[in-house]
């Protein structure tokens, strides 16, 4: 069995509050939300970060990006939202499985800290 938390969430081995799911991706609410709405979108395939994607992942990446606006609409984020992907050490990526944060229902600051 894999010890990757997000692979285990993707296979429902670890429970999560699911916002969207299909055969390729799953979106679930973050355990420690940084905004009133904080959802993570991940590929079910284990990819550590954007540095690890290959040519064959192009369609999957496009699928994630395409679905984000539908997921955001379902979450009621008509007023806007932020999409963030932390990759690698300097970005403080804590879970080594590619993920995209969707944050909404509060005013964001820019530039990020
Ligand atoms: P990162 O810091 O790697 O960009 O984001 C990882 C995110 O995953 C964090 O916001 C953290 O709260 C969330 N997280 C870590 N473990 C779990 C978990 O077991 N379940 C859920 N729902 N979120 C988690
Ligand atoms: Zn994984």
Report on this model:
With 113 residues, the chain is of the alpha+beta class. It has a single domain, classed as HIT family, subunit A. The chain is built from 2 helices and 5 strands. It has helices spanning 5-10, 58-74; strands at 18-21, 25-29, 37-43, 81-84, 100-104. A 5-stranded antiparallel beta sheet has the order 1-2-3-5-4, with helices on one face. The longest helix is centred in the middle third of the chain and has 17 residues, at 58-74. The chain is globular. 19% of the residues are buried. Bound molecules: guanosine-5'-monophosphate and zinc ion (ZN). Zinc ion is lined by residues 4, 6-7, 46, 97. Residues 5-113 form the HIT domain. Pfam families: HIT (PF01230). A motif (Histidine triad motif) lies at residues 97-101. InterPro entries: Histidine_triad_CS, Histidine_triad_HIT, HIT-like, HIT-like_sf. This is Histidine triad nucleotide-binding protein.
Average of the residue pLDDT scores: 97
Structural class assignment: alpha+beta
- Tally of alpha and pi helices: 2
CATH fold-type name: HIT family, subunit A
| SSE topology string | HEEEHEE
Q: What's the number of extended β-strand segments?
A: 5
How many strands, what sense, and barrel or not for the largest sheet? 5 strands, antiparallel
Small molecules bound: guanosine-5'-monophosphate, zinc ion
Q: In what range is the share of β-strand residues?
A: 15-25%
Query: What coarse outline follows from CA principal-axis ratios?
Result: globular
Q: Give the strand order of the largest sheet, numbering strands 1, 2, ... along the chain.
A: 1-2-3-5-4
* CATH class identity: Alpha Beta
What is the CA-based Rg, rounded? 14 Å
For the record, give the distance between the C-alpha atoms at the N and C termini, rounded to a whole number: 36 Å
- The total tally of domains equals 1
CATH architecture: 2-Layer Sandwich
The stretches of 5 or more residues where confidence is low (pLDDT under 50) are: none
Superfamily (CATH H level) name? HIT-like
- Tell me the helix content: 10-25%
């Amino acid at each position: 069995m894999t010890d990757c938390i997000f692979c285990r969430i993707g296979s429902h081995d670890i429970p999560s509050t699911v916002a969207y799911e299909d055969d390729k991706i799953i979106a679930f609410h973050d355990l420690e939300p940084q905004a009133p709405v904080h959802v993570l979108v991940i590929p079910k395939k284990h990819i550590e970060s954007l540095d690890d994607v290959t040519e064959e992942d192009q369609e999957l990446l496009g699928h994630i990006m395409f679905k984000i606006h539908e997921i955001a609409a379902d979450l009621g984020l008509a007023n806007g939202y932020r999409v963030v992907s932390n990759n690698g050490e300097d970005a403080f990526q804590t879970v080594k499985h590619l993920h995209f944060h969707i944050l909404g229902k509060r005013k964001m600051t820019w530039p990020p800290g």
